[in-house]
Amino acid sequence: MPVSLRRVVDDHWERLEEERVSGPDHVRTSELPVTTPAGSLLAAVDHMGNRHVLVPLTANQHVRTDRRGAALAVRERPLENGEIYERYADLGCLRRDLDEVFTGLVSDVLSAVETTPERPLKALYTVLNRWRDLFRHAPAPLGIDQLAGLFGELVVLNELLAGRSTAVDFWTGPSGHHHDFTIGSHGIEVKTSTATRDRTARIHGINQLQPPPHGDLDLVWIRLESVAEQGKTLAELVESARRAGDDDASLLLKLAEAGYLTADAERYHDVRFEIREQRWYEVGEDFPRIDPAAVPADVSELDYTLDLAGQRPHATDPDEIRARVQRITRENT
Questions:
Q1: Residue 1: how many CA atoms within 13 Å on its side-chain side?
Q2: Pairing of strands 27-36, 51-56
Q3: DSSP string spanning 13-25?
């Protein structure tokens, strides 16, 4: 969803919140710039200040009340104004601390309805089920190594966003792709270490250092130090990505796939990292790695440790990293 339309949604809710709703069964509404054959979608706010989006229903459509989650609820809501009686599917967020996440979900719903305006209810359920599945299966709190790994990927994502505001699309690691970023025919694999000594990277699988077909690959190695003050939190990197990027919905989904929910940011507020070293390598023909062609067919799930401490391979000069990032995004999109 373009950032301008996301802002429109937020603006609608903020204006609706300026006046109190008269009673518990009432909502204040305003018409959103997304239409269907049955009418426009509506932003709404209830008497508790909770935010809703209303999707118009046709005469033969009905919504079954769904309150399986503590945060989201779906119900059928009739609206009557004088002689006009209309019915809507009402998706509401019951927790104000999740307003930002809900905005991402609603943005995704609006994008889906724009794509298939003749089936708005189906679009709503499709998006909702995808989001619920992600949040239902969100893992236990991330450990320090997982936090460091996600931190490293967000460092690179912010580098890419500095040159291209749609770079969230390039972040493929959370979905299980064997490279963390895929930019056209170029791949980027990120390895993060919190060790104070050595430059080693654990390579998972024989294909992780294989460039994409007819493309090339970079390996980014980042050394982090956990610090009590200064440094940055994951929440700060996420906020930087949200400011620089155009697609909050995709970013929030990918963070959830990686096991991080923005609503849980407070859980990690004491975890701060400082970047001590950042090295970029071009994975060329002479790069030290296991060649998949040399692995016997009956060998699988092969992991190994790569030592980057020597003169080989050669790292990209730090001053050239930004120029390299800009060149990669320009040449491969």
A1: 28
A2: unpaired
A3: HHHHTTS--SSTT
Q: Which residue matches tokens 């002479």?
A: 286
CA-to-CA distance for 104 and 249, rounded, in angstroms? 4
Domain locations in the chain? 3-136, 144-331
Q: Which amino acid is at 156?
A: V
Tell whether omega for the bond before 56 is within 30 degrees of 0, i.e. cis. no
148 SS3 class = helix
d(Cα 139, Cα 250) in Å, to the nearest integer? 19
Q: Which two tokens stand for residue 294?
A: 């040399």
pTM of the model: 0.71
For the chain, the C-alpha Rg in angstroms (whole number) is 23
Which amino acid type is present at position 240?
S
Cis peptide bond upstream of 313, omega within 30: yes
How many Å apart are CA 190 and CA 200, to the nearest integer? 12
DSSP 49: -
pLDDT tens-digit map of 149-196? 999 999 999 999 988 888 998 999 988 888 999 998 899 999 999 998
| Residues 151/180, Cβ–Cβ less than 8 Å | no
The SS3 of residue 262 is helix
Closest listed residue to residue 43, CA positions, set 33, 263, 252, 70: 33
